[in-house]
Amino acid sequence: MPRALDSVMRTGREATSAGAVIIRTLEQFLRTTDGAIGAFHAPYWCDDEVGAAARHAAETLWKNVCKRNSTAPVTHDCYLKLFYLQGGELAPRDWTIMLDEAQDADPVTLSLVERHTGARIIVGDKYQQLYQWRGAVNALSRMRSDSVKLSLTQTFRFGAGAAAWVNWVLEAIGEKLRIIPAAHRTTASIGEKPVTIDALLARTNAGTLDQAIQGLERSRKVHVMGGADPLIKLIRGAWNLHRGKPASGELAMFASWVELSAAARGQKDGAPGDPALQVLVRLIKDRDRGVLQMCRQLEACVDSPTAAQITVSTVHKAKGLEWPRVSLSSDFNEFVELEGGKPVVDLQEAYIMYVALTRAREQLLLSPACAEIISASVAAARRSRQQPSNGGESAGSAIKRETSNGLPRHPSGTIRIRRKADQEG
Questions:
Q1: Which among 81, 180, 294, 348 counts the fewest CB atoms within 10 Å?
Q2: Segment 220-245, tens digit of pLDDT
């Protein structure tokens, strides 16, 4: 392994950076069903020389991991991948296997489920697919044509107020099904005045940081979902790279600020870069040394949500969670736009909005900007389908009078889907 490490270091990297690139290459391989490690498993921003060296080093590390008496570290992904490559089966044929959260299935796990020749139950919500950018696969779309499909549209989390907003999103993206609300009352309102809420959800990490600091400045006890420490370390690591010093942790693989900036800008094949890195680059450029003050402020966040007055989170980290009272920030994006008179749907942005709107049990508060984004997206979809304009009434206004028993009829027409890699930026 030292020789393999040296081969990556010869590309101009220090040992810590070289080691991080090798580990990231192996991790990417482990998340796929590929049988061998290739240079394409290396981080996308690596040049050909680094990619080739990282492939060779990761291959050496993987061989050590696979040795029965090896002392190389083994993660859950390691033994699961090895089990898959060796032709392992999850259960006897007469067993039934259930896969939950199937809209964001790990490719290796999904392949093991598909290998099962007995009965299989696949459960998921395709509108909550948020991790395609990590390589997650929507197992629901890979079901056999002869499969029995059952739609579970009844929610027990939120009532008609929140369900109306959710159903507007479903209408805008051309979905025929509608959510049936729970029997209890859930209010939905638009406003930006400080109110008592339990959680505030933002679209991006940058939005989460800003909302956390605003809460701290109002003397609130704030908990950042996933912890404030990882974000603080990322910011300080980026600052170190910006100052010409090495970074640690998640940013250790970057040899310089130039390399991190390149990774943020985009991939070699023209695909968009990493929004999480884009946030760091933008923070450093906009605030310069002010990011250090931001880090000091964030250190005041409490570690436990039970000790907090408000929890601040990205939508990605809030998936699967719920709170009595939830507020949505202003950094969401439109998910339907008109191009040549036809609607183009950004499914990833629509799914993020859908997840955000479905977290509140009792009270949902939308920022005016968030409400306008939904309104504009619904209006664009309706205009393209020649829907009634409600006398010029905006979606935000019309929703107040539409209930779960009188939601808009599903419009006819063709929708073009824009699929793009999304990340928790």
A1: 180
A2: 999 999 999 988 998 999 999 999 99
C-alpha span between 70 and 309 (Å, rounded): 48
State the residue for tokens 């498993």: 41
Of 324, 326, 348, 323, the residue nearest 335 (C-alpha): 348
Q: How far apart are CA 357 and CA 418, in angstroms?
A: 21
Q: What is the pLDDT of residues 265-324, one digit of tens each?
A: 876 665 567 777 888 898 899 889 999 999 999 999 999 999 999 999 999 999 999 999
Residues with Cβ < 8 Å from 262, sequence gap 6 or more?
45
- CA 116/CA 89 separation, integer angstroms: 7
Is the distance from CB of 346 to CB of 420 less than 8 angstroms?
yes
Sheet with 342-346, edge to edge strand ranges: 336-339, 342-346, 416-418
For residue 208, give the 3-state DSSP assignment. helix
CB 123 within 8 A of CB 132: no
